[in-house]
Fold this sequence. Notes:
By secondary structure, this protein is mostly helical.
Amino acid sequence: MTPFLKRIATPLLTGLFLISLLSGLALFFHWNPAWFHSMHEWLSLLLILPFVLHVWKNWRPMLGYLRRPLFAGTLAVSALAAAAFIVPSMGQGAGGGRPPAFAVAQKMLDGSVAEVAAVLGETPATLSATLEAAGFAVADTDQSLSELAATSGRARNDLFAVLAR
């Protein structure tokens, strides 16, 4: 390992850990999740590099830890803590564990123009006109919003901006 990598491993590990810690707390307490979500994911991934450098730099002391039962015990406790979150959500499919708002949003997109108009307190004709003004081609009010976005060549998420007006 180069002297530069040896000097930077621990400070970089510390800095990225603090960012991960603070962004994780912000996400947990729902403080401006739009600010912290991508930061937390990407910089936590980047944390892998200084972690590996730190372990490499401190390999001899690390071997001492690996020989102690306490190290194996703490790894086991960490694995059990992770399992406490994973096991309850097993079998829930790809969307398991996501916020319920995502499931509701998906149901809205699966609904027809007429059905969604009723939920929004509008007539199908009014919602159709609004969608058409936003660039969506409404062929039939029985068409689902997902189909409408696909046939209009637009992203499904573009519909939410129109529906939320």
